[in-house]
């Protein structure tokens, strides 16, 4: 029934087992906005500037200016093919490994988290970010803001839109990364 769609097989041999995966070639979705790659994401710290649910209502737990939510993407020092995403609300961190596909799909895994006691609102923010980001799949798009800057910085300003598979939309703005 499906013309020109042949099945492909991936075989992975381990020490004592053989894993077989079967699949079809996936057509990449056309990307909107500017190109995004690992180096671009990892070059900046990202501050959450807007968060809405699938009904376009503010996600209150993570839109407080008293404790901004930030994201940090990085490659592991000993392996540039392994990438980590971290999300913070100025207390504990939430995150995991991540993969960015050619069509700007962002897939985030999970990792062990710190569990320092925080105030109730910060813990609610962390719980919400954990719920949204860990084990998530989202579509990214990027837009460059005008070059007029109020902070006297030569840093280009970008808005990174993250549309989660569950319907939420998070908008992040880049900031200078303190530690490269």
Describe the protein's architecture and organization:
It is built from 2 helices and 10 strands; from the N terminus they run ββαβββββαβββ. It is mainly beta. It starts with 6 loop residues before the first strand and ends with a strand. The mean pLDDT is 86.
Keywords:
mainly beta; 2 helices; 180 residues; eight-stranded antiparallel beta barrel; single chain; two-stranded antiparallel sheet
Task: Produce a short descriptive summary.
The protein is mainly beta. The protein is 11% helix and 42% strand.
Q: Give the number of DSSP strands.
A: 10
The biggest beta sheet is recorded as:
8 strands, antiparallel, barrel
Beta percentage is 35-45%
Query: How helix-rich are the residues, as a percent range?
Result: 10-25%
The ordered H/E elements are: EEHEEEEEHEEE
Strands side by side in the biggest sheet: 3-4-5-6-7-8-9-10
Structural class: mainly beta
Overall residue-averaged pLDDT value: 86
